[in-house]
Amino acid sequence: MTTMESLIGLVNRIQQACTKLGDYGGSDSNTFSSLWEALPSVAVVGGQSSGKSSVLESIVGRDFLPRGSGIVTRRPLVLQLHKTEDGANEYAEFLHRPGRKITDFAVVRQEIQDETDRITGKTKQISPIPIHLSIYSPDVVNLTLIDLPGLTKVAIDGQSESIVQDIENMVRSYVEKPNCIILAISPANQDIATSDAIKLSREVDPSGERTFGVLTKLDLMDKGTNALDVLEGRSYRLQHPWVGIVNRSQADINKNVDMIVARRKELEYFETSPDYGHLASKMGSVYLAKLLSQHLESVIRARIPSITSLINKSIDELESEMDHLGRPIAVDAGAQLYTILELCRKFERVFKEHLDGGRAGGDRIYNVFDNQLPAALRKLPIEKHLSLQNVKRVVSEADGYQPHLIAPEQGYRRLIEGTLSYFRGPAEASVDAVHFVLKELVRKSIGETEELRRFPTLQAEISAATSEALERFREVSKKTTIRLVDMESSYLTVDFFRRLPQEMERAGNPAHPTNPSNRKSPQKMEKAGTPAQPTNPSNLAAGSNDDRYGDGHFRRIASNVSSYIGMVSDTLRITIPKAVVYCQVREAKQSLLHYFYTQIGKKEAKQLSELLDEDPSVMERRQQCFKRLELYKAARDEIDSVSWVR
């Protein structure tokens, strides 16, 4: 079952991996799509002296953040809280110091300061590169918060004139992302209309769907005033409830009042307050932490499908790019020609493996012959062509002004030729179906030939050359299969009709299968999949004058033609696959790149070099892609390791 710990912990691990790779919120130097930006997070936003640091320390229950005047938070701090079992020791661990467990939170404060100075120096400048801090404690909830530099209105000594805009741009780069939950910190002793956090959140989240409002310093408001209009959503309404916080006073901080004691005092304040007593159950840092943890968990759960989709899409994009990347190639023409020929042979080896069964795909050609072609033959409109009305019309037209004397031979020929013309369609369709399979196998073979992935130009040349060759094979195959059909039309099997008079002698034998009483109708036999046998040979005899031009006479003609067509159909079902394999599959195995080889041998050194060309920055790009691909695959494995509850 999915737990809050596994969901938030999952995002924590992916965020850490992103940071190691240089993918972090607020970075605009990344040439890759950002996985970080797809991960739900809680960004803490507030102006300087709004009580932002105190809120974070209240949630954690520890003093661990640097304090001072001016801009103290100069790098984003990704604070990952992990709830442990009761009685377990508290400790902190930095991503840049893996394996070092710090139990003294004064050391944590100093390490944050030192790590900030390492990137920004001792100046008051800021950096978008985050610091990752994980805290493990039984007194916290599973939650991840990003502490951002406090918004300011003026630059102080030692800061550039652009610092105000730089901080706002950094904060905005985090909170404008649709997956970011905004924790807007505002002091209660200032007009909410002047709140820097609310002003910014309103710009990036005008509906308030992603914003949680936090009101600090409630105990410092002027006597006789309260913040109920804000807390109850009348002054500024958000989709989520406002939460009031009472931080430690400066005197408490100076006296190092324990955070657990401070939490207790905060709870007592709300429970005993005449203004806020009715809201006490939904106030305070403990409630805020639980509220954020639950909401973050629900957002992560909802975003998992889109995160997975982004990861899979990014993996596909990176693998596609890696197909073009990885060992230096020779510079002389002879070695380059040898390299190209070797690459082509490896491609041909993979292609033949697909056809011969070493790899999947060749069986699709057999499926064309075993399923698609018979199905197409069964669907031919033969029954409609041999309908009583059409047979009468064709035979009458063939007779012209003088009716046939004995058997309507011209009528038979026209009916047979007209019916056989339908077989052209399945014959051509078989050729096209095999052509499509061969093209797919070529495409797969190019992609599966790893050595070709570095050379997209050569891949394109091979693809173009094989397409031309397969088109030639298809044209020859079509001509051959159509000839097979035309040959059946051009010369009928005379013995079939010569045997009909012999049937007359058996017609009187009631037990003989050709006796009409023991024979199924042509329609039933066709539906059963068995070609209809020629009916009583009196079809061809003159018969009585009354029957010669009656419906029974024409039905017998249709029956005989149907039987003959069934015989031809069985023949073509065997010969068409033979022709297709001979003209297309066999040629593809033996001479797919023959013409390409003759053209390659005529190319000059410069043209050969172009086929094996690589960008000078390919090696660096390849390394970047490889690391990024490892990140996404690791993230996918992390997601797969969690059993999601829908």
Walk me through the structure.
The chain is built from 24 helices and eight strands. The protein has 646 residues and is an alpha/beta fold. It folds into two domains: 40-283, P-loop containing nucleotide triphosphate hydrolases (Rossmann fold, 3-Layer(aba) Sandwich), CATH 3.40.50; 333-504 and 550-612, Four Helix Bundle (Hemerythrin (Met), subunit A). An eight-stranded mixed β-sheet has the order 3-4-2-5-1-6-7-8, sandwiched between helices. Helix 14 runs parallel beside helix 21 (551-591), helix 15 packs parallel to helix 21 (551-591) and helix 16 runs antiparallel to helix 21. It is elongated and about 125 Å long.
Descriptive labels:
single chain; 646 residues; alpha/beta; Rossmann fold; Four Helix Bundle (Hemerythrin (Met), subunit A); 2 domains; eight-stranded mixed β-sheet; 24 helices
Number of strands: 8
Question: What overall form do the CA principal axes indicate?
Answer: elongated
Question: Can you give the mean pLDDT?
Answer: 82
Just name the CATH architecture of the largest domain: 3-Layer(aba) Sandwich
Structure at a glance:
The chain is α/β, with parallel strands linked by helices. It has two domains: 40-283, 3-Layer(aba) Sandwich (Rossmann fold), CATH 3.40.50.300; 333-504 and 550-612, Four Helix Bundle (Hemerythrin (Met), subunit A). 55% of the residues lie in helices and 7% in strands.
